[in-house]
Amino acid sequence: MSLLKGKRIGVALTGSHCTIGEILPQFEKMAQAGAALFPILSPSVRETDTRFGTAAAAREKVEQITGRKPWLEIVDVEPIGPQKLLDLLLIAPCSGNSLAKLARGITDSAVLMAAKAQLRNRRPLLLSISTNDALGLNAANIAVLLNTKYIFMVPFGQDSPEGKPNSMVARSELIIPAVEAALEGRQLQPILVNPH
Question: Which of 72, 77, 94, 105 has its Cα between 20 and 30 A from that of 38?
């Protein structure tokens, strides 16, 4: 039996629009494995049309996969803390902006408030990073989060060492193994991998 069956998993998307298309199929697999998914969208995902697709299309696909309307505002996610609603929160993709704010305790969006609530409950928070400055200014923030209890990472690596030497992206196909490990209180190893 799947470790995901019956688990309540928050699936939060932030503004690394180029990786959303790779991540949504992993959400579908989690739903097929019996997880109850609760979607949360950052302002960037819910409002921004990009060359990778429209905000409306992303929202529609998320609703189709999860069977639920996404939580969009801070007030929508506030019950996560007191009601202990989630067994695990997955932020995928976790943009550099969200990563930096999380490391500094800033909670100015539904995604970040959900993360704060999850940590308050001492329950796993799993990050699937996608940022062009992972080996630049955000390196210090990644280090902070790697050393924070209850925070786990989907294994990640440089996606374009020659063209974008500071950029790192999590491997989407490792999301489900990382979810299963985090539910058991383990970090999936190795953390640093070749992304493709």
Answer: 105
Element (H, E) at 95: strand 88-95
CA distance 118 to 9: 11
Q: What is the pTM of this model?
A: 0.96
Q: Which 8-state DSSP code applies to residue 63?
A: H
Q: CB atoms < 10 A from the CB of 162, how many? A: 6
Domain limits for position 15: 8-183
Q: Which residues contact 85 (CB under 8 A, 6 or more apart)?
A: 8, 10, 38, 79
> Percent helix, strand and coil across the chain, each rounded to 5?
40, 20, 40
**Total number of domains in the chain:** 1
Which three-class secondary structure state does DSSP give residue 181? helix
Residue 190 within any structural domain of the chain: no
- Tell whether 194 is covered by a domain: no
Q: List the CATH number of the domain containing 164.
A: 3.40.50.1950
Written as six digits, the tokens of 57 are 């299309």
Mean pLDDT value across residues 107-126? 97
- Who's near 193: CB < 8 A, 6+ residues apart? 155, 156, 157, 171, 174
